[in-house]
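Structure (tokenized):
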């Protein structure tokens, strides 16, 4: 069932179609701002504190003031009006001084995802920053879709595997090790990645694309995707989809949700 699409702009709540910010805001004109996207389970935000902490870190890296107390109050008021729907919460802070909170429907996702690799050079000055300057990430997805895949997998020019535009990748080596790129290769500090790495034995490092091409199984992980099995990479099918370690990760994340939000695997969306 579609959820109500509401937006709070500096505390003023309206239907999203009616929300307004000044046209001269540098968040719009220059992509100068930060954002977060948070999964809503029956209207309850998952890991809200961690998302707000990361928003503050991103803003500090851009020397962008954030009125966290005001934003937290505005989120509470928005979610009270939103109700107990499934969906996602998008938070935006702009250089023009706007605080925005949106409730949105979850994007349609398949049971599995096909990836195509796209060469991408991280902008060092924005490493670890979840900024509004997301055009390169979105273009990478369009390039991948133009090749018949569902999503991009970003790979550095030197062949080091990074992440998907909005999620982290994990895969299983021939030896059975669960691998994921280390943060210092130039990827975002994903909250879902952190939870999975905390629950399971995961090896982090700077891995070449050739290492991933030999994977037995792989999955993407993010706030919105949760754990999504990867079916193929650059047109080559993976031997196991979903594999044992993917199911293990899905079960571990379901247990995290049950512990943190009281949501059982049988009732969550």
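Design, position by position:
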């Amino acid at each position: 069932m579609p959820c109500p699409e509401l937006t709070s702009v500096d505390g003023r709540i309206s239907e999203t179609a009616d929300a307004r910010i000044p046209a001269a805001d540098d968040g719009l004109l220059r992509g100068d701002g930060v954002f977060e996207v948070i999964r809503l389970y029956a209207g309850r935000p998952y890991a809200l504190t961690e998302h707000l902490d990361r928003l503050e870190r991103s803003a500090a890296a851009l020397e962008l003031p954030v009125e966290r107390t005001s934003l937290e109050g505005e989120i509470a008021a928005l979610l009270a009006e939103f109700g107990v729907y499934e969906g996602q919460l998008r938070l935006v802070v702009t250089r023009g001084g706007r605080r925005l909170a949106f409730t949105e429907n979850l994007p349609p996702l398949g049971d599995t995802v096909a990836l195509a690799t796209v060469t991408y050079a991280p902008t060092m000055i924005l490493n670890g920053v979840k900024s509004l300057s997301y055009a390169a990430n979105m273009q990478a997805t369009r390039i991948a879709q133009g090749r018949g895949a569902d999503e991009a997998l970003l790979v550095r020019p030197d062949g080091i595997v990074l992440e998907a535009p909005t999620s982290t990748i994990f895969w299983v080596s021939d030896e059975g090790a669960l691998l994921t790129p280390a943060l210092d290769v130039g990827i975002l500090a994903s909250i879902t990645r952190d939870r999975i790495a905390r629950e399971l034995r995961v090896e982090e490092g700077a891995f070449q694309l050739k290492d991933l091409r030999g994977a037995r199984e792989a999955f993407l992980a993010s706030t919105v995707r949760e754990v999504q099995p990867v079916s193929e990479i650059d047109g080559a099918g993976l031997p196991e989809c979903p594999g044992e370690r993917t199911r293990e990760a899905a079960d571990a994340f379901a247990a995290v949700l049950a512990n943190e939000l009281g949501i059982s695997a049988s009732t969550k969306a």
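Reviewer-requested clarification: The chain has a mean pLDDT of 94. The chain has two domains: 6-104, 113-259.
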